[in-house]
Specification:
alpha/beta, Maf protein, seven-stranded mixed β-sheet, 5 helices, 28% helix, 25% strand
């Protein structure tokens, strides 16, 4: 009889229980045990000021791996609109200023998109995940989801830019799809499945 695979522990470089829960759903059925980084709030915050998602993810994973004996993974993600020279990009969470709401960020983006038609409204979400242990990067994976920027918000689910991001395969905004559909198609879900595949 074949023994069940031994569970592997990974630490999320975050103090956000919501992010942990999201990754735990994605890890369901896999031999992975996920937990938040202990005493995260007591550690000086890593400055995510690099110009690319990859540099931010790797830097964050390396930095927080110094505070855990277990492998630590960190992600950086955001929305990229080629017609806006890649904005909001790495500034997605701060696009309308520090402390701005998702609604304020969406309003600013829709204003910037005024007058843009057809292919000019193409956009994609990207997620980069880096895994590090003892100050050494051991894996970097990424993935994306392609779509378009709507002319007005649609749907009440999701978060961030989801209400204005139209996903053609499902003919809905990401704020209108179910949690299961989002996990299947989202940039974060696809990137994390790449990481799990590497680990297995």
């Amino acid at each position: 009889m074949r023994a069940a695979p031994r569970s592997r522990k990974l630490v999320v470089a975050s103090g956000n229980p919501g992010k942990l829960a999201e990754y735990q759903i994605l890890a369901a059925g896999h031999a992975l045990e996920l937990e938040l980084l202990a005493n995260f709030s007591a550690i000086s915050e890593f400055p995510e000021d690099a110009p690319t998602f990859g540099e931010n993810a790797v830097g964050k994973a390396l930095y927080y791996s110094r505070y855990s004996p277990e492998p630590v993974f960190a992600d950086d993600s955001g929305l990229v609109v080629p017609a806006l020279d890649g904005a909001p990009g790495v500034l997605s969470a701060r696009y309308a200023g520090m402390g701005a709401s998702s609604e304020q960020r969406n309003t600013k983006l829709l204003a910037a998109m005024q007058g843009k038609q057809g292919g000019e409204r193409t956009a994609y979400f990207v997620c980069v995940i880096a895994l590090a242990q003892h100050g050494r990067c051991v894996a970097v994976v990424s993935d994306k989801v392609d779509g378009e920027i709507l002319e007005q918000p649609c749907g009440v689910g999701g978060f961030g830019y989801d209400p204005i991001f139209y996903f053609p395969p499902l003919h809905k905004s990401l704020a209108e799809v179910s949690a299961e559909q989002k996990n299947e198609h989202s940039h974060r879900g696809k990137a994390f499945r790449r990481l799990m595949h590497l680990l297995e």
